[in-house]
């Protein structure tokens, strides 16, 4: 691990700073931790401390949610990304592929839409579309 990666992974930011940087509430941040999407470090007093990598991950989660992807879909995408990152460590840089291909994202979204249909509930996108047709 190089110095830049060490600095990016250092847990130094309290939740109040993370809230300002990501525009997420403390409740949302803790919710993502409960779902094991992030795992901040803890001080001896049990306070959460976040790294710059945690901030990036929270912003990525926020972006996925804004695109209408549910928690199960986000977990799949992040798992695929982590798998590809591990594969990149093994492969030379010239041979590495994009982290998540468009096809993989479409497959996850398709699965999510099928899941939403099975439970007879509209997806977030369907709810957003209806507000434009008054």
UniProtKB/TrEMBL annotation:
Pfam families membership: MerR_1
Organism superkingdom: Bacteria
InterPro entries with a match to the protein in the record: DNA-bd_dom_put_sf (IPR009061), MerR-type_HTH_dom (IPR000551), MerR_fam (IPR047057)
CDD domains assigned to the protein according to its UniProt record, in alphabetical order: HTH_GlnR-like
Assigned keywords, A-Z: DNA-binding, Repressor, Transcription, Transcription regulation
The UniProt record lists the keyword Repressor: yes
Repressor is among the record's keywords: yes
Ranges of residues in domain HTH merR-type: 12-80
GO terms for MF: DNA binding; DNA-binding transcription factor activity
Official protein name in the record: HTH merR-type domain-containing protein
């Amino acid at each position: 691990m190089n110095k830049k990666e060490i600095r990016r992974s250092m847990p130094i930011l309290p939740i109040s700073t993370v809230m300002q940087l990501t525009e997420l509430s403390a409740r949302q941040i803790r919710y993502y931790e409960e779902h094991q999407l992030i795992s901040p470090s803890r001080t001896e007093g049990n306070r959460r401390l976040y790294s710059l990598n945690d901030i990036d991950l929270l912003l990525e989660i926020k972006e996925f949610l804004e695109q209408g992807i549910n928690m199960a879909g986000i977990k799949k995408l992040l798992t695929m990304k982590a798998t590809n990152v591990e594969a990149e460590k093994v492969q030379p840089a010239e041979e590495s592929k994009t982290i998540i291909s468009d096809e993989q994202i479409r497959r996850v979204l398709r699965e999510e839409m099928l899941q939403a249909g099975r439970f007879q509930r509209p997806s977030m996108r369907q709810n957003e579309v209806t507000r434009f047709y008054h």
